[in-house]
């Protein structure tokens, strides 16, 4: 159940958002090794944001997953997602943070229950 939330100060129109969501979904499924049908991705653009005292293009992401992430995978995920943001939104890799959160299934609700 990987869930990725991206926030950026770059304006994101519906077409670009759709491309980013699709690319991120495929990358997460591939790198984590879970079916894409489990992956959820959202993006929120035009958010006031400062990074290193500058309002140049920047982004922040949070990835939550029940397993599949950790020291051996997080660097690969960070690189894959940074590549997408750099290609689609011209956000430098040096202006993107991502937080990884490996959660227990009992702490995540779905379908009226927990995992």
UniProtKB/TrEMBL annotation:
EC number assigned by the record: 5.3.2.1, 5.3.3.12
Catalytic activity of the protein: 3-phenylpyruvate = enol-phenylpyruvate; L-dopachrome = 5,6-dihydroxyindole-2-carboxylate
Segments forming a coiled coil: none
UniProt GO MF annotations: cytokine activity; dopachrome isomerase activity; phenylpyruvate tautomerase activity
Alphabetical keyword list: Cytokine, Isomerase, Secreted
Principal subcellular localization: secreted
Keyword Secreted assigned: yes
One GO term describing the cellular component: extracellular space
InterPro entries: Macrophage_inhib_fac, Tautomerase/MIF_sf
UniProt-annotated location(s): Secreted
Family label: Belongs to the MIF family.
The name this protein goes by in its record: L-dopachrome isomerase
Lineage: Eukaryota, Viridiplantae, Streptophyta, Embryophyta, Tracheophyta
